[in-house]
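Consider one such protein record:
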Amino acid sequence: MAEPSNSGGGVDNTFRKKFDREEYLQRARAREEKEAEAGKRTKSSGPPVQRKPLKHRDYEVDLESRLGKTQVVTPIAPLSQQAGYYCSVCECVVKDSANYLDHINGKKHQRALGMSMRSERATLEQVKDRFEVLKKRKDTGGFTEQDFDERILKQQQEEEERKRQRREKKKEKKEKTVVEEEPEIDPDVAALMGFGGFGSSKK
């Protein structure tokens, strides 16, 4: 048998690409410069947005107005008329009350209102004023023993009035049933039949 001859005798098959280090170093530096310029452009696009600190809500959150009501929901209805709680600021619908509360207290909603999630640092005067307001509220809201006695008397009178009304209603109902039970008998028919009436011995 003849041995296979090496047909690629004059070809260098151990070729290895040689990189020009200087050329690739210049390309890398040019790319880094472009990235740095692009980063500067995005950062210096405008001044940072200054948002107001968090404030108390000046409205009552309405969670119970649609409670227990049925509503026909169609896929073509506007967002505000779909099932769930609609947020007019963010224009989204949240399916239940817990998630709605999370949404209106969340970062996205507060940013849409123009507020950051940081609260304003209170000064010493504000804290003292707040304590004074709470002390006044506590003093005026306290119940005395006399107020408590008056409330008990009032409740007892109301309970007696309810009992009296119930007794009267029961009495009227009883009188109506007695009147309905006594049939009217024509005296001529009773005489023809031979008896005086259908009365019982009970009175």
In short: The longest strand covers residues 115-119. The chain has a mean pLDDT of 80.
